[in-house]
Amino acid sequence: MTPTIPAEFISLAGDHRISELDDIDALVRVYKPKVFRFVAFSISDRDAADSITQDCLLKAHLTRNQFRGDCSIATWLMRIAFNLVRDHTKSQKFRFWKSAAASAIDASDVSQYLASGESSAEAQLIARERVQMVYKTLQELSGKQRSIFLMRFVEEMDLSDIAAITGMTVPTIKTHLYRAVGAIRARLGAER
Amino acid sequence: MSAHLTKEELTDTLLGISSLTVNAHLLGCPACADELESVKRTIAGFRDAAHGWSDDALEAAENRASRARSSGARSRRTVWILTAAAAMILFIVGSVAYFHQEPAVSQAHPVVLSTPTSNTGLSQAQLDQDNQLLSQVSVELSEAVPAPMQPLLVSQSSGSSATTNK
């Protein structure tokens, strides 16, 4: 499961960011939340996400000599995480245990973390139901659509970075986003 | 633009790449503006909840890991203490057993000088002869005057007796 480093990330130019990869403690402290969040909502399994996140950060640290600073460390890490998630979801083990995982992420649990900025209890309840609805819609999307949606709308990454991570073109990325947003709109429309 | 926004136009607006035409439509179409706002708020709510959940999940995982580390250190310390105690008990028990066993060893292998045994293969007559010889040796060794001196003593005693006889 060795992640392949895209050729465009490798150049002869040095960069001060490479030194950031030498300190694995700093790497974990700064980037673990982002990687963990992306992996967790991609595979919907808390424990597996924790394991994959550690694997991702360790691989990044061990292969840091291959990072030439052509992109941000976050983008490079997300590329490794994206590959690890893809490998994980392809495995038979994942398919078998997906429905029965004890550490599966619960939609209602996630919705409890919504900030209570709504004016009334009813509005807050509706907002939480919508969080659950988005989560459930994500689970029905394809792996690529889900990952792209998470990178764009949860991690707020640029389309060009997502294209570099996934190896797709920007128009293809946009097509996946149209479908993902369309599915959410359809659910919202059905609720009304 | 008379029709409502397509899903592509609405998504492009969410991505921040909407055209001037779309922006103009949104200003004049409350339905599309409401829908855009609804989708935007829904996705933003999910993003906030996802951030909150993952921060909490990571903190919980870190707490579990630190508890496991401290528990592991306690377990290792307990194992060391138990091992040391077991070694000490074994040493004490071994020492006691050794000192209790020493006299038993000497009793188990007594030095038999002249006791006849059934498995020596010697006849009773030979044993009696040996015992007699050993007794004789013992008597000779226990005599106050060494053997080389005895003929002199014998002659002296015979001389005195001769004098007496005179």
Report what the structure shows.
The complex is a heterodimer of chains A (192) and B (166). With 192 residues, chain A is mostly helical. In chain A, 70% of the residues lie in helices and 0% in strands. Chain A has 10 helices and no strands. Mean pLDDT of chain A is 84; it is low at 5-14. Chain B has 166 residues and is mainly alpha-helical. In chain B, 80% of the residues lie in helices and 0% in strands. Chain B is built from 5 helices and no strands. Chain B has helices spanning 7-15, 20-28, 30-108, 124-142, 150-165. The longest helix of chain B is centred in the middle third of the chain and has 79 residues, at 30-108. The radius of gyration of chain B is 57 Å and the shape is rod-shaped. At the A-B interface, helix 2, helix 6, helix 7, helix 8 and helix 10 of A face helix 1 and helix 3 of B.
Shape of chain B: rod-shaped
- Which series of helices and strands of chain B comes N to C? HHHHH
Helix content of chain A: over 70%
First-to-last CA distance of chain B: 178 Å
Average pLDDT, all residues of chain B: 78
Q: Specify the number of helices of chain A.
A: 10
How would you spell out the order of helices and strands of chain A?
HHHHHHHHHH
Per-chain topology:
The complex is a heterodimer of chains A (about 190) and B (about 170).
Chain A: H1 16-22, H2 24-43, H3 46-62, H4 73-90, H5 92-97, H6 107-111, H7 121-140, H8 143-154, H9 159-166, H10 170-191
Helix pairs in contact in A: 2-3, 2-4, 3-4, 4-9, 7-10, 8-10
Chain B: H1 7-15, H2 20-28, H3 30-108, H4 124-142, H5 150-165
Task: Considering the chains and any ligands shown, give keywords for the structure.
heterodimer, A: 192 residues, mainly alpha, 70% helix, B: 166 residues, 0% strand, disordered C terminus
Could you give a quick summary of the protein structure above?
The complex is a heterodimer of chains A (192) and B (166). Chain A contains 10 helices and no strands.
